[in-house]
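Database export, one record per block. Field names are fixed; values are copied verbatim from the stored entry.
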Amino acid sequence: MTGQRDRWAELTGGRAGEEYAQRFARLAASGHDVHGEATFCAALVESAAKVLDAGCGTGRIAIRLAELGHHCTGVDVDPSMLAVARRDAPDQDWLLGDLARLDDLGLDPDHDLVLAAGNVIPLLAPGTGETVVGHLAAVLRPGGLLVTGMGLDAAHLPLEEAPVTLDEFDDWCTRAGLTLRQRYATWSGDPYREGGGYAVSVHAAPTR
């Protein structure tokens, strides 16, 4: 046990599932592309890839990846979010679990890609970041990819300041045996520039 709630739980009280889903439904209805993360990830893997959506929320990305032909399992600690995911895609695999104890779920180390989008990393419980990254790396196959999206300032986070810097995050990845392959400023692939407020990072596991 970490002894602390994650920052997402502190912000929402674990009751944000329906509200979160409705927000993205409104965006989709107004013509916004709400599948940028899934499109980004699908371009990195071969067909029928095995994907873990860590901190999957209401399943928006995992469901889209499944529609694109990939085998996607979602994990989240918020039951209200998973309730929406299970309602919208009852045939997909949805696991209730704390990423700081991901090893308790018995996942095989054969995933082609692990995704932590939606500010999952900054919203973890304080002090658990390195542990979580280690767990995410441990379920990758040799050469598998860890893809993350995270805000780096208050403008890109539901927090007054960023609890994690890119240097800290990269250090956790290095300690987990991962190597930075690519970094962007958006899920559309815009170049990342030093000091930017948001980063999409692709780290790779060693090939053997």
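Remark 1: The CA atoms of residues 27 and 74 lie 22 Å apart.
Remark 2: The helical segments are 7-12, 17-29, 36-42, 60-67, 79-88, 129-138, 166-175.
End of record.
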